[in-house]
Amino acid sequence: xxxxxxxxxxxxxxxxxxxxxxxxxxxxxxxxxxxxxxxxxxxxxxxxxxxxxxxxxxxxxxxxxxxxxxxxxxxxxxxxxxxxxxxxxxxxxxxxxxxxxxxxxxxxxxxxxxxxxxxxxxxxxxxxxxxxxxxxxxxxxxxxxxxxxxxxxxxxxxxxxxxxxxxxxxxxxxxxxxxxxxxxxxxxxxxxxxxxxxxxxxxxxxxxxxxxx
Length: 213
Known about the structure:
By secondary structure, the chain is mainly α. The protein has a single domain (2-203), classed as Four Helix Bundle (Hemerythrin (Met), subunit A) (Up-down Bundle), CATH 1.20.120. Helix content is 70%, strand content 2%. Helix 1 (2-40) runs antiparallel to helix 2, helix 3 (74-89) runs antiparallel to helix 6 (166-193) and helix 6 crosses helix 7 (195-203). The longest helix is centred in the N-terminal third of the chain and has 39 residues, at 2-40. It is globular.
């Protein structure tokens, strides 16, 4: 039993370490692709803001506190890997503006403000895999249980409206299917092991969108 627990912790650390390394390599590719798109057309502020937002997320992933419990199920792994990779699948070419660039940039800035605020409260409890890294139930977490994902959603709407293609729409649609799976897996794990989290779920009813979900 002891050896099994040690082996499980080692496997979890290895998996999380590999995900962090993969995220770092992926970010290099994303910076090169979307940074070039902004370089050749500096009016595309949404491209630059996407890089800033994703770069900040990456920094937090690399500095995140080690989890005490992780969900290493196949479903959680697939959803997490897609959530890490999605930005590399977005295409800066052949897109169209459904709204002016400033509208998308405003939504992205609003998204970043929400994300940064939530991440400040979350601190080093931020991470990739659904995991127990400590509970945070203050600040924006008193309104919805996943305010960072709410911030992402606002930003992705703004991004898509100014960088629209059917490919980008499909990539982001699949992303939110993956995000809802991650939310469900994380909440199931926390609720099963933490009575405080079950109380938090009763106090804060909405996961992502107030009055909707």
